[in-house]
């Protein structure tokens, strides 16, 4: 019984599955809201400049306010002009403060809900379900791991995007201006405890607080059994079955990258592993980080493990093998070689008329391998050469990065060109595959009909009735070809494996009959046999068009890690825009690149969609909005370039090119021809 209840964990009537799915869906929505709000922090809460400090210093408080609210309010009441300012400030900011407070509160509610779910599981509220059985189920295991990971990501995002002091000032202002302080049941107290300043600053060169972020992660206690079981699953299993999309061993760490990022975040909930458990850390590094150390943890937020694991003895020791300069050199040189090789390949494939249907169907493994190599190389190089992941004051990190730049012969323009070409190559292949999948059955049935008819006709030839040149009547062959025709007709599209095997046998039989009965001498008979074999071959090709290929392309083509990094390819230093100026044909490839980037939205939206959550709209709008503004930034160059060219054309046509009179002397023809300016136009 227990196995049948587990069959569809995500079914609507599975309360246990729906409950955790709702939590995870909510987690993705909270992160989007935090990212969205972080761009709207009212500047005055930073109290950065002198003017703000003088004007608002007396009405904006940090958590020291809670030590003696009466004293603080007393100071205000003593000065009527401060009371007026306070009232005006309240009116201007209460709306945005409320929105921030609701977001902060939702983070606290999230972890309370997750803890309650774990208690319910533990107490047997969900019939026949325990933590163990849920972790045995594929979806259950993914959701439990995601639930804890998303909580960690929320906390990191808050600290990275909304500084601790600013949070405290906003929370105190909200407390003072809202009804929260009069209502007894408000959990503002708990929200403040969870989100009080950690001392962390995202400013470059800022010192990292002691025991950060693990002490921050432990502010709300979470079941240790749950944490250790989730870490156990993430260490041992391939929880998203990604390895099958990456059969080559050298792509293994990329295949497991999503899971590696989750493990990175979740290890902060059990820092003893990072500090002292050397065997576990070695195993984790060997499996996930033998050849990479810059990872993307969520929608392009990147972390350099060389820096992040510096304070933890076991983690740092384990990672030393990876960061050894000879290993760095080996990885960088390998990617230099791979990039060069695959870029030539992709450019070959993109040549006009190269990607024809037969070529694609006969070379699926080769094309997919090329795509894997491209994407893995782009990912490694983009992450490991990113500026954001290297603190310029850290000598070791700088040294590692310089080594990479040298040995990978890094050139941002060439890398971006490879990204554009790869995206275009993927786009063409996907479109072809979708088209072929939609026509697959009709084509297959058509080839089957053609092949079968040829065999019937050939049977008639050997009946002696058909007047085909000099073929003697042969009842055996006549019966045999009739039988083959029947066999071809009996092939069943829905049982593709059996049909495929049988088709191969039929092709062999047709080859053998040709040799065996000396049918070579008759060209027309040979032609019939060759045609039928061709149709049977086409049937095999067609049956091999599988949805799995599209799914693999989707997995392999993931670009979510570049959600933020890609911006620097647009910045003035590396001007993507100048490339557009130089080669306008790039614009078609850009379309494919934007589509590739848009598939990064699948990650945060998947669970929200599965849960049928009303958050779908706002979350997808936020990320799409981000994407659209990036696209605008890149594309504004197109009208610019067009108008610049138009101006030149107008100038040439109005000033430089003289109008040709209706009659002119032959010897003046050359002067009027003005071949130079016309060529330029």
From TrEMBL:
Domain of life: Eukaryota
Protein's organism: Spizella passerina (Chipping sparrow)
Family from the record: Belongs to the strumpellin family.
Biological processes per GO annotation: actin filament polymerization; endosome fission; endosome organization; regulation of actin nucleation
InterPro entries (UniProt xref): WASH_strumpellin (IPR019393)
Gene Ontology CC: one annotated term: endosome
Protein name: WASH complex subunit 5
Pfam (any one): Strumpellin
């Amino acid at each position: 019984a227990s196995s049948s209840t587990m069959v569809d964990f995500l079914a609507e009537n599975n309360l246990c599955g729906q409950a955790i799915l709702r939590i995870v869906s909510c987690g993705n929505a909270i992160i989007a809201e935090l990212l969205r709000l972080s761009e709207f922090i009212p500047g005055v809460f930073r109290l950065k400049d002198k003017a703000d400090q003088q004007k608002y210093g007396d009405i904006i408080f940090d958590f020291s306010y809670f030590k003696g609210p009466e004293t603080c309010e007393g100071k205000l009441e003593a000065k009527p002009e401060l009371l007026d300012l306070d009232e005006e400030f309240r009116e201007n900011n209460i709306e945005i403060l409320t929105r921030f407070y609701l977001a902060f509160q939702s983070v606290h509610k999230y972890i309370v809900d997750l803890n309650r779910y774990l208690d319910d599981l533990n107490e047997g509220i969900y019939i026949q379900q325990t933590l163990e059985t849920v972790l045995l189920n594929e979806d259950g295991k993914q959701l439990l791991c995601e639930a804890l990971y998303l909580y960690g990501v929320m906390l990191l995002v808050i600290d990275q995007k909304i500084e601790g002091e600013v949070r405290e000032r906003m929370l105190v202002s909200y407390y003072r201006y809202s009804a929260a302080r009069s209502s007894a049941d408000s959990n503002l107290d708990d929200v403040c405890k969870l989100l009080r300043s950690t001392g962390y600053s995202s400013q470059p060169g800022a010192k990292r607080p002691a025991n950060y972020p693990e002490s921050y992660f432990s502010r709300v206690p979470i079941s240790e059994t749950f944490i250790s079981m989730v870490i156990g699953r993430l260490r041992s299993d391939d929880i998203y079955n990604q390895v099958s999309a990456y059969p080559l061993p050298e792509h293994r760490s990329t295949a497991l990258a999503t899971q590696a990022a989750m493990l990175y975040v979740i290890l902060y909930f059990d820092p003893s592993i990072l500090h002292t458990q050397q065997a576990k850390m070695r195993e984790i590094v060997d499996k996930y980080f033998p050849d990479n150390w810059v990872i993307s943890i969520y929608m392009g937020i990147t972390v350099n493990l060389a820096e992040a694991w510096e304070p933890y003895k076991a983690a740092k020791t384990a990672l030393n093998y990876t960061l050894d300069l000879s290993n760095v050199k080996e990885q960088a040189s390998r990617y230099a070689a791979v990039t060069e090789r695959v870029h030539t390949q992709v450019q070959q494939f993109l040549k006009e008329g190269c990607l024809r249907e037969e070529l694609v169907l006969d070379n699926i493994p080769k094309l997919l391998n090329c795509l894997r190599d491209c994407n893995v190389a782009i990912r490694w190089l983009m992450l490991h050469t990113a500026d954001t992941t290297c603190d310029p004051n850290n000598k070791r990190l700088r040294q590692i990065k310089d080594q990479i730049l040298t040995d990978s012969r890094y050139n941002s323009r060439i890398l971006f060109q490879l990204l554009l070409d790869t995206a275009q190559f993927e786009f063409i292949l996907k479109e072809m595959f979708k088209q072929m999948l939609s026509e697959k059955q009709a084509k297959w049935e058509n080839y089957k009909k053609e092949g079968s008819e040829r065999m019937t006709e050939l049977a008639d030839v050997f009946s002696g009735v058909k007047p085909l040149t000099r073929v003697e009547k042969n009842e055996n062959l006549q019966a045999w070809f009739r039988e083959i025709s029947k066999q071809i007709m009996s092939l069943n599209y829905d049982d593709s494996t059996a049909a495929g095997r049988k088709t191969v046998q039929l092709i062999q039989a047709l080859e053998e009959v040709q040799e065996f009965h000396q049918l070579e001498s008759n060209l027309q008979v040979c032609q019939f046999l060759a045609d039928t074999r061709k149709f049977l071959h086409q049937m095999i090709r067609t049956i091999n068009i599988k949805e799995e290929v599209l799914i693999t392309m989707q997995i392999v083509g993931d670009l979510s890690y570049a959600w933020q990094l890609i911006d620097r390819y647009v910045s003035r230093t590396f001007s993507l825009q100048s490339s557009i100026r130089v080669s306008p044909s790039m614009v078609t490839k850009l379309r494919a690149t934007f589509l590739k980037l848009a598939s990064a939205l699948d990650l945060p939206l998947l669970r929200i969609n599965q849960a049928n959550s009303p958050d779908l709209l706002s979350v997808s709008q936020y990320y799409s909005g981000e994407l659209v503004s990036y696209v605008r930034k890149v594309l504004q160059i197109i009208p610019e370039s067009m108008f610049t060219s138009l101006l030149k054309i107008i100038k040439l046509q109005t000033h430089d090119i003289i109008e040709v009179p209706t009659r002119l002397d032959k010897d003046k023809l050359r002067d009027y021809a003005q071949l130079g300016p016309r060529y330029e136009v």
